[in-house]
Amino acid sequence: MKKENLPTKICLVCERPYTWRKKWEKNWENVKYCSEKCRRNKTTQV
Predict the structure, then answer these.
(1) Which residue of 18, 19, 27, 28 is most buried, as measured by CB atoms within 10 A?
(2) pTM
(3) Do residues 19 and 8 touch, judged by C-beta distance below 8 A?
């Protein structure tokens, strides 16, 4: 699959788009944050 065809989502904390990663392959539906930093800061921003 080409990089330009990968699915994208919007991070709930920083509101930036991020693309699918191989490590999220089996869990893509549950991924909500673009990074560990955003996941840790989820309560301060939301």
Answers:
(1) 18
(2) 0.76
(3) yes
pLDDT at 46: 47
CA dist., res. 35 & res. 9, Å (int)? 12
- Max CA-CA distance within the chain? 36
Residue range of the domain that includes 25: 3-45
| Reduced 3-state DSSP string for 26-41 | CCHHHCCCCCHHHHHC
Residue 2: the pLDDT is 77
- Cα 7 from chain centre: 10
Domain count for the chain, please give it.
Answer: 1
What's the mean pLDDT in 12-41?
Answer: 94
